[in-house]
Design the sequence.
């Protein structure tokens, strides 16, 4: 069994300015050189525009590049998770949602999606008490390491 399809984000768009408490209003780019930070920022903006326009492959590609440059940026990683969901890459979406929640447990939208993913897996019998670790990894992926 693979990671189960996830219905929660079907109609959701990503608004980079829409934030919850304790979330920054804009992604903070930590790259040392200004031109690199500008490139990453522009890739994020273009990725979110593509996501909201329904061009999920372009969005995923741009946001993956941004995450490579900004691996600890929760807003960028959350936008990538949404692009992956919309692009039917649920395994990648699950991975990035887990990372967002690890980096910022107060990111309310990520927590909501993460819990919904997990409940869907449980409800469909993907993970059960006493199940072998290999079977859980086949459904939920490898354990996170910091």
Sequence:
């Amino acid at each position: 069994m693979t990671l189960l399809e996830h219905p929660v984000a079907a109609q959701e768009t990503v608004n980079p300015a829409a934030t919850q408490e304790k979330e920054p209003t804009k992604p903070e780019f930590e790259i040392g050189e200004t031109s690199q930070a500008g490139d990453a920022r522009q890739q994020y903006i273009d990725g979110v525009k593509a996501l909201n326009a329904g061009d999920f492959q372009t969005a995923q590609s741009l946001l993956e590049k941004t995450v490579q440059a900004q691996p600890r940026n929760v807003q960028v990683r959350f936008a990538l998770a949404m692009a992956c969901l919309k692009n039917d890459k649920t395994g990648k979406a699950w991975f990035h949602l887990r990372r967002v929640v690890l980096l910022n447990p107060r990111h309310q939208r990520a927590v909501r999606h993460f819990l919904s993913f997990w409940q869907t897996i449980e409800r469909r019998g993907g993970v059960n008490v006493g199940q072998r670790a290999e079977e859980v990894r086949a459904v939920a992926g490898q354990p996170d390491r910091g």
